[in-house]
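Try this one yourself first.
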């Protein structure tokens, strides 16, 4: 018999007695039981699950689980058996082994294949703390492709946090989810619950997305569901549906087959009260950027990300970006917040006496449910990644068309279109389509322009031309891509030259906000694409360049950027943490609460 080392023991001497204690006795006892279980020795319980028999020790089960303690101490049949047999056919053998291993070792292995059964089993065995941990693991895997099923599962097994997360995903990505097979299999009662939500995010088609989803659901099993027509149509805000979508559905095969469906819609349109649009919970996200007015690989940057709620007027810090970005662009596509960024690292080798810059590239997705950034590189092919980052490196411009889900990149040497495809709830960007170059850009060292999409047409404005290292001037030029003739056409010049500005589309107009022209600008001008005319609107409160502008609740927010230290537009240049919002109906800018971090050359998106 092996002797124990004296180091394993703790000995205390007193006047009356001596106490000898074996260190880590509990751990060693548990380890001993685990060895017995692994070798199937001295087992006195058999757990039967789906045709398999798994031996165990009732002492370990009783100590680890109140469910088994009650079974073996309250006179149940199993307590009278020398070799007790317990049936757990509700779950897989893999899940039973995993939970038994946890009881013997204190460690649980969770996989995508076992997670659902682990929640079922821990619920059955009343292992509340372990069930909560399993639900949290399951919550990290919620996606557009499974959230409807997770919602139903979480209700059945009383997983409150999991239910909240799955419902949040349903609301956040409804335009994608309603196109999936899982949506077509929804029960009538669950569809009714969704249609009653006031905070569904509906994308660029608005309530038309809801009406289309109802038609798809009815058509999928029309013989069984046609009796629900009136109930589900009643929950669609028909007066908020665009006429084009309504006309299209009124003449579709389903309404031809069931004329009463057309009658229901026509009757409701007449009787329905004023249009009341749903309003999803949306935030303004601001991320990364330089914290001082000087920008370069040695200048201070931040990973900090914060978001703003317009209703509560509150800024909140969320998970940091994974890298200290030197260039960044954020956008929403198919209900996902995507951020493409690169980091320049200034490297100097003392031994070789050389200096160079290293570029680290990344594409990330923000998971709003888990408050974390995930690597999204797999969504993009190497060509599309190179296209996006080349545009950032060359101070070009990136624009996204929400209707067509296309991403445009514009630099002085190339214009590209990246199509974003959807498959089983995931996005994929595989191909880059080369578009004609802007001839004037090819003839100039052109950068710092802005691009925007209006009515599925791409527009490019302003920028700067570098004649020499010391001679740089801003331009007032504007261009529109003519899809019919596959060429760029010049449009009316802006009212004043500007570079390093930002651009948004709102209410059929295009707004150019701030920028630089010999000095930083607070001016804002509006372009009417139908008349090819510019007009002045109210100027911002603060001069801004290198800032971001976004549309938030039908208003324009201008965030951060470079400005001046003095209120009258003079003094040293500085990076600001101020933001302001423009109401086009009042033609008025109003200051917002300040960000927690001053920044310029940052990313911003409403999501």
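Now uncover the answer:
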């Amino acid at each position: 018999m092996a002797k124990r080392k004296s180091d394993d023991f703790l000995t205390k001497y007193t006047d009356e007695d001596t106490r000898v204690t074996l260190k880590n006795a509990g751990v060693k006892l548990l380890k001993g039981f685990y060895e017995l279980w692994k070798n199937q020795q001295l087992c006195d319980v058999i757990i039967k699950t789906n045709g398999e028999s798994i031996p165990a020790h009732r002492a370990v089960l009783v100590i680890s689980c109140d469910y088994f303690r009650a079974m073996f101490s309250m006179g149940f049949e199993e307590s009278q058996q020398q070799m007790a047999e317990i049936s757990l056919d509700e779950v897989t053998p893999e899940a039973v082994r995993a939970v038994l291993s946890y009881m013997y070792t204190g460690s649980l292995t969770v996989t995508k294949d076992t997670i659902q059964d682990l929640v079922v089993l821990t619920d059955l065995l009343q292992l509340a703390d372990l069930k909560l941990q399993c639900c949290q693991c399951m919550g990290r895997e919620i996606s557009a492709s499974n959230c409807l099923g997770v919602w139903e599962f979480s209700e059945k097994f009383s997983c409150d946090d999991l239910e909240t997360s799955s419902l949040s995903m349903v609301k956040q990505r409804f335009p994608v989810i309603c196109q999936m097979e899982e949506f077509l299999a929804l029960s009538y009662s669950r569809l009714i619950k969704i249609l009653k939500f006031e905070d569904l995010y509906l994308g660029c088609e608005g309530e038309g997305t809801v009406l289309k989803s109802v038609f798809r659901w009815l058509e999928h099993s029309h013989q069984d569901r046609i009796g629900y027509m009136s109930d589900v149509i009643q929950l669609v805000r028909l007066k908020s549906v665009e006429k084009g979508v309504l006309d299209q559905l009124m003449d579709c095969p389903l309404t031809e087959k069931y004329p009463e469906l057309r009658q229901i819609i026509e009757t409701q349109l007449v009787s329905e009260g004023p249009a009341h649009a749903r309003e999803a919970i949306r935030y303004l996200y601001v991320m990364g950027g330089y914290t001082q007015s000087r920008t370069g690989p040695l200048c201070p940057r931040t990973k900090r990300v914060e978001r703003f709620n317009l209703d509560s007027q509150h800024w909140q810090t969320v998970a940091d970006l994974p890298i200290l970005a030197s260039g960044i662009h954020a956008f929403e596509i198919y209900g996902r917040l995507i951020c493409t960024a690169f980091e320049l690292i200034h490297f100097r080798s003392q031994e070789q006496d050389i200096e160079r810059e290293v570029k680290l590239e990344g594409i990330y997705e923000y998971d709003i449910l888990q408050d974390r950034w995930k690597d999204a590189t797999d969504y993009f092919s190497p060509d599309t990644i190179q296209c996006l980052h080349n545009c950032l490196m060359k101070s070009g411009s990136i624009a996204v068309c929400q209707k067509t889900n296309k991403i445009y990149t514009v630099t002085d040497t190339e214009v590209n279109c990246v199509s974003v495809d959807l498959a089983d709830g995931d996005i994929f960007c595989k191909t880059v389509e080369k578009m004609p170059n802007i001839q004037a850009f090819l003839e100039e060292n052109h950068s710092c322009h802005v691009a925007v999409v209006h009515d599925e047409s791409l527009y490019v404005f302003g920028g700067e031309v570098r004649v020499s290292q010391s001679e740089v001037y801003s331009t007032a030029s504007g261009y529109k891509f003519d899809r019919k003739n596959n060429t760029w056409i010049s449009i009316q010049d802006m009212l004043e030259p500007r570079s390093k500005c930002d651009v948004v589309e709102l209410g059929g107009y295009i707004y150019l906000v701030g920028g630089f022209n010999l000095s930083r600008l607070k001016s804002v001008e509006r372009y009417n694409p139908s008349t090819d005319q510019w007009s002045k609107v109210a100027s911002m409160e603060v001069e801004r360049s290198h800032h971001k502008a976004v549309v938030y609740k039908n208003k324009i927010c201008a965030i951060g950027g470079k400005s001046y230290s003095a209120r009258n537009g003079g003094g040293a240049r500085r990076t600001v943490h101020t933001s302001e919002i423009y109401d086009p109906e009042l033609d008025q800018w109003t200051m917002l609460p300040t960000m927690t971090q001053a920044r310029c050359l940052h990313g911003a998106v409403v999501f």
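Discussion: The chain has a mean pLDDT of 91. The radius of gyration is 31 Å.
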